[in-house]
Write a structure and sequence with these properties.
Blueprint: H1 2-13, E1 19-23, E2 29-30, H2 33-40, E3 45-60, E4 63-72, H3 76-79, E5 86-89, E6 100-104, H4 105-111, E7 121-126, E8 141-152, H5 157-160, E9 163-167, H6 168-175, E10 181-182, E11 184-189, H7 195-206, E12 210-214, H8 215-218, H9 220-258, H10 260-268, H11 273-309, H12 331-353
Helix pairs in contact: 9-12, 11-12
């Protein structure tokens, strides 16, 4: 589960900013130059990018479909790693003369287009103001055209199959938004500053009425699923381990029965019942401790070999995002494994040892 979590985090980090600012109420908010200068003046803020996201209709030749239109400014490409996930063409939303678009790979496939197509995409969105013209329905829509610059792949369906990146100026014209109106601000945190510190500083500048989300909070549902899956896996393995402890209880019980003569000898030499019980408890605990250490060493060796050499493959290396099963060793997991094994070992040693009688 750690390996998959790290893999997903790396995929999202190519697209999601360090921090995203949205309005608590409403779809958009106004950000003026004074506020932007105040944010950029914070030592913890490295870059600031504006964006507008809305649903629009895309038409290309005889195909049309709704898309998530994301209008971004020139800073967006610098603060994200989107150039690293371009699969065809290049990243560009405005070339100085024409508007360009960068589409998710799945969306481009559905529309049957690619980066080298010379025909423009037609983008439609309903007009926000004015009366509805029932005689000419097409007059109720704003229309913009843009040429295809490239496609990208985050390997997540909600991005690859629905998202289309365009220039924020095109989005504002299409949706009748003002020059200072945005739906989100993306923030790149300066090196050496924590997300928590940046959140406090930015919240102090903007005040109430805004939601600040880090990368985990932007993909909260996805990471929550990963945490639940990891927890369920851990509980299942603990249950298996709990069943295995009955072997330890049985082995120690048989040892106690086998050593009855030695127990009586120790008693005659002056050993108390408590001391004899502690001898068997210590033996059972030592056996479990050696098992825990041996298991951890074997497990860590397998994980490190998988991490560096990819012994366990996924498919034939072409169907999946990764060629090998992802692995990530975390110190806290090692501590938790030790605590669980030693706790169950102590319990499995105490149950038979407490029944020792001279």
């Amino acid at each position: 589960m750690n390996g998959f979590g790290v893999m997903v985090e790396q995929l999202f980090s190519q697209f999601d900013p360090d921090l995203r600012i949205t309005a608590k109420a409403g779809k958009t908010f106004i950000i003026n130059d004074k506020q932007k200068d105040a944010l950029l003046g914070l030592p913890c803020v490295d870059m600031l990018s504006e964006s507008i996201q809305e649903t629009a209709l895309v038409y290309f030749e005889d195909k049309q479909m709704p898309v998530q239109l994301l209008g971004v400014d020139s800073v967006f490409g610098k603060m994200t790693g989107i150039e690293n996930i371009i699969t065809d063409g290049h990243y560009e939303v405005y070339d100085g003369a024409f508007d360009r678009a960068v589409l998710g790979q799945g969306l481009a496939w559905k529309l049957g287009i690619g980066a080298r197509f010379i025909h423009a995409l037609q983008v439609y969105a309903p007009k926000r103001e004015g009366k509805v013209n029932m005689l000419r329905p097409d007059a109720n829509f704003n229309q913009e055209a843009c040429f295809i610059a490239g496609t990208f792949a985050v390997n997540q369906q909600k991005y690859d199959d629905n998202l289309m990146l365009v220039d924020i100026g095109l989005t504002r014209r299409l949706l009748d938004y003002g020059e200072q109106e945005v739906s989100a601000l993306q923030v790149a945190i300066a090196e050496g500053y924590s997300i928590k510190h940046a959140k406090r500083e930015i919240a102090a500048v903007l005040g109430d009425g805004y939601v600040l989300q880090d990368r985990y909070e932007q993909q909260e549902d996805f990471f929550r699923i990963l945490r639940v899956e990891k927890l369920l896996t851990a509980l299942l393995l603990i249950f298996i381990l709990l069943i295995a402890t009955f072997n330890g209880i049985g082995s120690l019980s048989m040892l106690i029965i086998d050593k009855q003569q030695d127990i009586r000898t120790l008693s005659h030499l002056g050993a108390s019942d408590g001391m004899i019980r502690r001898v068997f408890m210590l033996e059972g605990w030592l056996v479990n401790t050696l098992g825990a250490i041996g298991g951890l060493l074997i497990g860590l060796t397998i994980c490190l070999l998988q991490e560096h050499f990819g012994l366990l493959k996924l498919g034939n290396g072409t169907e999946y995002v990764l060629n090998a099963y992802p692995v990530a060793v975390q110190a806290w997991d090692i501590v938790m494994v030790c605590m669980v094994v030693l706790a169950l070992g102590a319990i499995s040693s105490w149950i038979p040892a407490r029944k020792v009688k001279v």
